[in-house]
Inverse folding.
């Protein structure tokens, strides 16, 4: 369906049997599956594949694999993918974005399992691209305002070395990819269909352009067609691969909300673009900002600041420097931690809780007050009701 | 300059000597003056006026009054005001919005002193109007979008019984007043000139319409012309009189920011209307939302919710009901208060700080976790990093 692109690079270091095993596992158990991830962690991919073939795996996993485990199409899958210019990227490959996918390990939701491998097409290094990146999502039926903003933000971000991840859908997705491409920047499409397919078909040219300079990723083996569930499942990869997630336009019931909530669940900062209150396409963004789930971004520079501040591409010291409690002496910090948020206490009680002497407590409280970290009313101390920062 | 309106109501209960004294004080000391407010608190208005005339007041106050204290024009001022249809509203009057102005008592900024009286024109009861109210401010050079939104919000709010306070200026102010008037609702203009003047002159008709059904207020005696400083000083009254402050459009250096910061300093919730990120007139609003000073409002209903939640017109129970910690047993609340925000502690340590037994701490922590008020990671507990509410 897609003509072969440039020869796909392959990490020579990864043994073929691992590639084969992961290709088999990827097709045999429909993602996401924490049970499968656990099985691989315990036994390694080759042994895990063997156990699955033999049926020597926990009952729940066996049931999920029942329909496919007797047929190993990994050789054909790898050949079909290669014919479409795609390789199988595995966690054993140095280009695997392991840092990003580590966030799945802290997520509570059972559906937030990492992928066991990814089909990849294009010259981009997935790990390097994800290192400084933003995921841009939004409505398919976007307004001109939204399309313009998505392209403009993506273009400025790409010019600043940020890779723009999106889903290649109509509307905001396509505008974001195109904005990055127009700036000569890097962009990555994460699809919900096989690497030999394009969806939507009208974006065959766009996806080809993305694959030519950036990267097209998918969890689904060759021949897979997209479906509603697969789009939802795909969204967790978009959420994980971006250092932050920007929602450009979203109606009240937008699918972008799923990617947004996945991003939050994975600890990624969520950003939303405001728009006219008269536009139905901005209602979802405004809701996310109102509920404090998302930060409002008015300029691409805001995005750079947020992914720089909270992102994974900066040294931890930078993050620490921006905390309002930084530079506080340990005693003062203890007093800060003891300050009640929903009550107001006399200094004496705070001192008791913090384990700090009365005189030192008062000095600490005054310092905290100067920094806007404590408030004093009628003899009682408390945390400020409103924080002026995130 | 302005034809007399309907006969101004006068609270018969307030002795004339108090009215005269406050008219004298209002003209003699240019507001705001905390020293003057304190003098009146100590001695009452009549004795305070007498002391000021005699020069028996603290040095600082004497200096500020030096230029005017020898001339008592209170009789003429009251006559001129009456000729323009205005009365002097004093704190001794039951219609004085004392509840609202009490906020000045908690403010730290020295320039946030309450007025010692107000010239009032129109049939509205200032106290009743301020009880359920919102202050709407914004750019003079507003966009069509902003003007439309200001009128629309004001109209819906007015229809819901909320009085719309604004400054009668060009742009957002006028649109807000007109929106309220168009809905047959109540609106109040707070001016920075004498009650016998109109500013801007082009708004003579608008101000007349406001005075006919609502209220026109000013701190400045008859004949006073507006000036840059007086607009700034006036803004604190707008901030105090609204149960909340809504900024509709504001550029980066907008004067509305002053009213916004006065509102925050007086403990009023600040709201901002988002707009297209491509509009310079929305930059100020977006900044306020980003910095968490203002809540984003997308619909008039959002404003109703916020002033209902935090406003002064609702019973305190309603406010309390909306706290996420409501309904928690005292022990659980103590555990909540002991939860660290910037660290993560084992349950044992939290129990020590909260003074709650180990078994009860664990039960409390699980309850808090269910409510989204605590988070657990690898044996340690902490407050959730992001709050989903204000």
């Amino acid at each position: 369906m897609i003509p072969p692109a440039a020869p796909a690079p392959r990490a020579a270091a990864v043994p073929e049997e691992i590639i084969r095993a992961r290709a088999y596992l990827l097709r045999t158990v429909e993602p996401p599956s924490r049970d499968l991830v656990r099985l691989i962690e315990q036994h390694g991919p080759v042994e895990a594949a063997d156990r699955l073939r033999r049926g020597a795996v926990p009952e729940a996993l066996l049931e999920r694999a029942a329909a496919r485990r007797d047929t190993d199409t990994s050789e054909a899958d790898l050949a079909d993918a290669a014919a479409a210019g795609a390789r199988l990227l595995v966690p054993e490959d140095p280009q695997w974005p392991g840092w990003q996918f580590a966030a799945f390990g802290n997520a509570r939701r059972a559906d937030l399992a990492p992928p066991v491998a990814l089909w990849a097409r294009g010259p981009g290094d997935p790990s390097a691209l994800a290192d400084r990146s933003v995921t841009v999502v939004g409505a398919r039926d976007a307004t001109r305002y939204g399309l313009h903003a998505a392209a403009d933000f993506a273009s400025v971000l790409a010019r600043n070395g940020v890779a723009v991840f999106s889903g290649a859908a109509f509307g905001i997705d396509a505008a974001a990819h195109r904005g990055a491409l127009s700036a000569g920047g890097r962009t990555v499409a994460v699809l919900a269909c096989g690497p030999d397919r394009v969806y939507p078909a009208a974006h065959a040219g766009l996806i080809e352009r993305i694959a030519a300079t950036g990267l097209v990723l998918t969890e689904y083996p060759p021949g897979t067609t997209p479906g509603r569930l697969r789009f939802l499942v795909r969204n967790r990869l978009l959420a994980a691969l971006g250092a932050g997630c920007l929602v450009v336009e979203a109606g009240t019931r937008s699918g972008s909300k799923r990617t947004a909530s996945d991003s939050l669940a994975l600890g990624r900062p969520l950003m939303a673009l405001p728009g006219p209150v008269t536009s139905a396409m901005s209602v979802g963004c405004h809701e996310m900002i109102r509920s404090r789930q998302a930060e409002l971004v008015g300029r691409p520079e805001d995005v750079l600041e947020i992914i720089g501040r909270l992102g994974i591409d900066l040294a931890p010291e930078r993050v620490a420097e921006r905390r309002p409690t930084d530079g506080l002496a340990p005693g003062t910090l203890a007093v800060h931690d003891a300050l009640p948020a929903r009550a107001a206490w006399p200094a004496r009680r705070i001192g008791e809780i913090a384990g700090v002497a009365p005189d030192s407590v008062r000095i600490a409280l005054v310092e905290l007050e100067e920094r806007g970290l404590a408030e004093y009313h009628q003899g009682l101390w408390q945390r400020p009701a409103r924080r002026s920062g995130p």
Summary: Chain B has two domains: 81-310, 330-382. Confidence is low (pLDDT under 50) at residues 1-8, 311-322 of chain B.
